[in-house]
């Protein structure tokens, strides 16, 4: 039997019991629930990852009907795209321009004056950015790198990224009309083509059996020796043991990682590699996104309680996020199609 889990309770006399496994940023999500007759229990345990036993202890045996009939599962896809893409772009720059190494050098008091060879890195302008998985985040990242740094694009996806291609074509024409070198795009026939050609490669596929260890020793071997590899998708997309070996053998090869194969742990040796920039799964950690996630999660719960239908497009959720407006009568995103009457 797991030990009791500490909680903070809002609106104790509320009719509907809502359990949040984490405290979340902002207060709108709390207000939305408590103003609508919910008793909100927020887990206040210091540990970040709750075990299944912990979650069972939190939910307790008071959700029998929900357990028997199946529980609606909601998510919050509409607010993560740009924030996650921006972190991938930050990792790209940090790795290409050796920001973390240089920062550590400076703080260690090692700087004795300007030197031509001090922390020389890679220029992005005019180079090729490779995107594997050109969905929502991959496409947003590609646009940032193309528009921001005038990089050419090569991408690999199972589907054609038509809007992205149109954007690059139009931006290329704009640059040309202004007397600048136009940017170009190419849809690669194979993932290997991207790995061979690109100077920067950012991974944005879903994690499934087709993308597990997508980056393996053979594929690392075909990448440019001074390439930059970024992963803000899911850790197991990279064979991290192979990556550590590759980083050791190729000091000019750099990576930026937001996610790890055995999260929260890193594979042995990774933490010692100066050519790796590592951050603790913070890609979605902007105030706007995290407050948006909390609000959308609360509205999924409320929508189910009130019997609202599911919103038509879970990626277009602006009407739910306006502080001053009443949210639409809908669940922003329910992924298992559980009807409201089942609650
Ligand atoms: N680090 C974070 O905090 C964070 C935040 C949000 C999402 N994510 C992760 O980012 C990734 C992308 O999310 P998204 O919202 O853009 O998803 P998405 O579904 O919009 O895009 C994923 C793309 O991957 C493509 N794909 C699937 N299998 C592939 C394969 N074998 N090879 C190449 N492409 C393939 C799909 O066709 C799709 O275009 C996911 O893995 C998601 O879990 C991470
Ligand atoms: O990785 C993700 O999907 C988000 O950052 C957390 O939900």
UniProtKB/TrEMBL annotation:
One of its GO terms (biological process) is oxidative photosynthetic carbon pathway. This is glycerate dehydrogenase. Residues 64-308 form the D-isomer specific 2-hydroxyacid dehydrogenase catalytic domain. It is found in: Peroxisome. GO terms for cellular component: cytosol; peroxisome. It is an enzyme of class 1 (oxidoreductase). The keyword Oxidoreductase applies. Belongs to the D-isomer specific 2-hydroxyacid dehydrogenase family. Keywords: Glycolate pathway, NAD, Oxidoreductase, Peroxisome. One of its GO terms (molecular function) is glyoxylate reductase (NADPH) activity. It catalyses: (R)-glycerate + NAD(+) = 3-hydroxypyruvate + NADH + H(+).
